[in-house]
Amino acid sequence: MIELEGDIQPVGELFQSPDVNAAREFFRQKSRAMVDKRMSVREAVERFIHDGDYIATGGFGSVRFSSAVLHEIVRTRKRNLGFSGHSTTHDFQILAAGHVIDRCDIAYVVGLEIRGLSPNGRRFMESGAVRTTEWSNAGLGWRYKAAAMGVPFLPARVMLGSDTLRYSAGRLIEDPFTGQKLLAVPALYPDVGIIHVHQADIYGNAQIDGTSIVDLDLAKASKRLIVTTERMVETEEFRRDPRKTSIPYWQVDAVCHVPFGSYPGNMPFEYFSDERHLAEWVEVEQDEARFAAFLDKFIYGADNFETYLALAAGEQRLAELRSLEILKRS
Amino acid sequence: MVTVDARYSLVELMICAAARQLEDNKTAVIGTGAPLAAAMLAQKTTAPNLVILFEAGAMAPILERLPISVSGSETQTRALVHGSMDEVMETCQRGLVDYTFLGGAQIDMYGNLNSTMIGGDYHRPKVRLPGSGGANDLASLCWKTMATMQHDVRRFVPKVDFITSPGYLTGPGAREAAGLPPGTGPYKVISTLGVMGFDPLSKRMQVESLHPGVTREDIAAATGFEMLFAARLEVTPEPTDEQLEILRTQVDPQGMILGKPERRKAG
Hints:
A: Glutaconate Coenzyme A-transferase, B: eight-stranded mixed sheet, two-stranded antiparallel ribbon, 7 helices
């Protein structure tokens, strides 16, 4: 590694090892068996997410994110999780509500895009309870990509010169061909990836419609992968048209059938976000006692995600969200 | 201090000024909020072939509804590509993206933007803000970076608490020395008081146009650093009736950015 004089030396903590050989050994052991991986969200979380694990969510904050799995993580009071805050919004809001994380790679957390900032997310992050390292969206996305490629880092031209670099765990390197200064972003292998998809078969072949954000690389980088899906389909769907296979089954550990599994978020081609419920969530976060009661009602007191759906939305509202969706299948 | 024509609000003036910066047949990655309203307005008026890209992966959509999230369904209507974030960011890194439009909590005279934290100690922030998101990437890689900001001394500061996204860093040559692609950097800042550019030699922010009713003194008083003024100072053109009509009825009929119709006149 070349130490470049006068440059920013990043001081951030590296939470996950970018050791590609260790990752290869892990993947060597990972089962390739084409077996039925259907299970409940409860079972998936119990089997694959352990206290202390480093987890990463797919989608983009409140769009095509796996709400059900995040609720279950909070409901079962997981502890000391690491988290990749890649363009997160409501997904981070749920994890912050449960105080389940203690370290976080940040590209975007606490913010809710046009919906403002999460008051509880801010309190949690300002409390000092979470160790943090900064990245950019591309930087963190390319960390998944390096892992997906099986290389220990990727060179990039972002974050240079900024405090985002200073508080990252990247390294400055020199291009051996041209001498150009570059940022090396280390491969990120999450212990568990959590991705919501449009349809999947019982083995885990999965289809994502619309933009895929960073999920194709995240699916490859994750040591264990939980897929929740709007619909179950036959494997023949994928064999007939392999363009539909966004994620092949051998990367997947659990398949959970969760209709409206991105609620209250948006699921492109399926349903729009429930802005009323999302606004209520932000509003109620302003008061800690009221928020605690809110969580008791919607997460801790609910048996499962289906109960939450019934409590927060109900059939009529869910139907309305379907009609509010702007992307239609041709 | 600022008198705004009763025909339009300050937000509408800013959106129209921002829309004017987006040329037809160019590419732009647009962030959520007012910049998006500007891009949508431009696409419906002066720049029908503006290629809008969203960092979550939608490329060249024809926008029908103002997006709440830069990844939502509204960003993907009639798009040519439903791609991925790495594809969009790599398109920027390859040099194919002309504009980006950002916001932030603080900006300094070199256009450095802070959207990460307020306070003196990174590990114990007074206010934790979202962080870079895609902003650092876009400010690093797109040819011309623009920002919209509320104009006051808390936001236009001598030194940002945290450089989330690079402007000209410490001045001329600093971006290149840091390894950032040559020829990139801040281009315009559209604030609630005026439109600023950057002096080509010193790379410092300078006012190019004052919004109607705003004086040099107003801007100087609302800026925490020494603001430069262009030799020929213009007045920001007012929104046309056509722009306002499209903005209110087609771009943001729900008032997500413009505010509710009854409050619009408050400016």
